[in-house]
Amino acid sequence: MTRMTDLSEQRPARWTEATVYPDMWTDPDNDPRDSESTGPDGELATLRDFLSSYRMTLRMKCEGLSPEQLARRSVPPSTMSLLGLVRHLAEVERDWRNWITDEEPLPKLYGKKDADFHGAVAEQAVVDAAYADLEREQAATDAALAAFPDLGLRVGKDGIAIRELLVHRIDEYARHSGHADLLRECVDGRVGQ
Fold first, then answer.
1. What are phi and psi of 177, to 5 degrees?
2. pLDDT band at 44, cuts 50/70/90?
3. What does pTM read for this prediction?
4. pLDDT value for 3
5. Distance CA 49, CA 46 (A)
6. pLDDT over 50 at 7, yes or no
7. CA 184 to CA 65: how far, in whole Å?
8. How far apart are CA 75 and CA 182, in angstroms?
9. Residues 158-181: what's their mean pLDDT?
10. Where is the composition biased (Basic and acidic residues) (predicted)?
11. Which of 2, 22, 31, 163 has a 20 to 30 Å separation from 50 between CA atoms?
């Protein structure tokens, strides 16, 4: 029982910037994800729109935090942190390109398994590099997939369908955006979807 009391005393007060819908991250007029307009036409455009929205959500959850806050492992003994998620998604974007080729796999960005999380340390240079890695890897994977407009086309050594790869990317970002919700709340108390 004492341990729970100690943890609850360390929790920051919950808050949100939203005033219209208090369970949201920000008010609709300030939300860059533009969920109020009509969705795109077509399957590929819809998949890209969902991916873009989840990518933006992750970045929004990390905004305004110091390197120390980004690197904070909020749920011990987990190694997961917001900075670790940024690094992890850069690593995963790179790996997805391995799925669409028959060539030798690209080397890992951060080295051995879980180095993306273990190397997420509270240094501005590490934060800057993580964001640069993520942007570069996202752009490279987007460009590689743009060469395959047929969503049913099967590619790579395992014959994965382009559609499946796009849905898998959305799933990965959506899952980690949920983690980011909880991590951010533990870091500074900010809540909202």
1. -65, -35
2. very high
3. 0.88
4. 42
5. 5
6. no
7. 9
8. 9
9. 96
10. 1-14
11. 22
Of residues 36 and 23, more confidently modeled: 23
Q: What is the dihedral of CA 182, 186, 188, 189, to 10 degrees?
A: 70
Task: Band the pLDDT of 181: cuts 50, 70, 90.
Answer: very high
- Least confident among 6-20, 42-56, 75-89: 6-20
Domains of the chain: 54-188 (1.20.120)
Q: Is 74's pLDDT higher than 80?
A: no
- For tokens 């940024």, what's the residue? 86
**77-97 burial: b if 16+ Cβ within 10 Å, else e:** eeebbbbbbbbbbbbbbbebb
Cα torsion through 117, 13, 68, 92, rounded to 10: 30
Place of tokens 């501005």: 124
